[in-house]
Task: structure prediction
Amino acid sequence: MSLSRSPSPNRGGGWSSPGLTTPYDNLSGTASPRKAYGELQMNGSGSSNVTWATAKAKSDEVNGYPSFSTKNNGFFSRHARQLSRSLPSFVRGAEKEKLGRGRWYPNNGSKAGRILAFVGRTIWRLRLRLLITLSLILAIIVFYVTRESGSRLPRPRLTEPAAMHRAYRRASILGGGSQFVIILAANQGGGVMEWKGPREWAIERDSVRNKKKYAKKWGYNLEIVDMSTKKRYAHEWRESWEKVDTIRKCMRKYPTAQWFWWLDLNTFIMEPSYTLQKHIFNDLSSNTYRDINDYNPLHINHPFNNTQLDPEALSPNGDGKASSIDLIIPQDCAGFNLGSFFVRRSTWTDRLLDIWWDPVGYEQKHMEWEHKEQDALEHLYINQPWIRGHTAFIPQRKINSFPAGACGQNGEDQRIHYMEADRDFVVNMAGCEWGRDCWGEMYNFRELSNKLNRTPWEKFKDGISDRIKAMKAKPEKKEGNG
Result:
């Protein structure tokens, strides 16, 4: 049989070359082209002619590709070459030149160009992470820098929260700033009682600016009340008692607010970074005390010893729950101090304000009560059991620290006087109009607050300025000694 289209030199076709003509007629996929082991042994020398079909079958058997199967059968066989291509290759010698062919490097392949190319490839590989990081930075900038729509004011600095920041801090479910109202008594004593000089106006300006900045920073409501003496009430002395009436009006003006913080004009917030939530209200139980015997300058008998009262009135701590606290008062060396105190909106508070403002009690006792509303509240606390169950006291220095000249000349009472090392929250220049310099105290505490709350950049600039002044002072001392 002929295996080629070319004419064979032999009669009947076929080739005389061994291996190109096979003696087997049946070459199906099921029959082996090789001779059996016994047939090979029957040959005289034990060997036989190796044909082309036998060599091919032997090669297929060695390579593992039988006649009934296809190549690259199985997962590893199909993907072995792809895996090997993905592995890093290390080429030495002359093959390095081949890797560089066809690639472009800046600056003709210099070291700086290769560094730039490496940086570019790295940025491209990390493009998703860089995009997320840049998006977060942009969101933070927008969060702090944006201003209210339609505002003609200059763009606020990063240190002053803008519209989005204030909205976040004011939201009741986020920052909760809208739940608090700061009531500041302004123009106190002005009007018919006395003329206000430059120092009085400077005190009021600094105090109002201080409260505005703090309320804006944390999203609190600020109500500045004109306390100038006018003829508002039937009795000529009622004007000096209007603190209670002012709180009631603020509760009607801010119906969604929960806590109202009264501040006298001679107060100054020393630490504007403190929030009311973290400083007091997030842990109200540990920041206040219900038993007045812990600090009792008025020597009030507490609790009541009347057995007819309920267990809550007979307990020194009331019901012991923070949710029942509706009035928070500090105490100084003389008793209750209402220069800085908190009151919460509740049915109990409405009842207290009504009785506190009762004209009958005022008419009978206003000549005896030198400290006006403060003495009236002390009277109610001493004689009315229902008052004590909802009243809590807060350490004086928590919201109402005194300067050294108040409650003693030495200013060393750890309960009362301001301590710079402890970074007290608020200072109250109470009684400064009686023999002390109100403007001097306000100025000193304002400058101290600015110094304590400097930014790192401001501290750096002040350090350089101080060093320059010290260097200039040394030659002057030498000239003076000479």
About this structure: Confidence is low (pLDDT under 50) at residues 24-31, 40-47, 148-162. The longest helix spans residues 456-481. The two ends are 132 Å apart (CA to CA). The CA atoms of residues 91 and 378 lie 92 Å apart.
